[in-house]
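Hi C.,

You asked whether I'd gotten around to modeling the 99-residue construct. I have! Everything is below, sequence then structure, no commentary in between.
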Amino acid sequence: MRKIIAVYIMANYRNGTLYTGVTSHLAQRVLIHKMKLSKKSFTALYQCTMLVFYEEHTSIKQAIMREKNIKAGSRKEKLMLIETMNPAWRDLFDEINVF
């Protein structure tokens, strides 16, 4: 899997529950969410298995700052981010899961 440093948003369905995270290995991290390896995690409990938004960054520090910025924003702002990048709310996992 290609290493992608990113901030990302997972969802359970269109306009549903949202989870914002940051990682230095996006494809690997999304796969962990999809497989629900940690049964008590937020994404497993709320079935957030669709990658609906991500931004690539050049450093983990930059990605963490952006994650904090997104989390501090309103739900409306998060939905606008998703709609701008992914208006159909497709699962973007195949797009980033390049071996």
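If it helps when you're writing up: The first helix runs from residue 26 to 35.

Thanks,
B.
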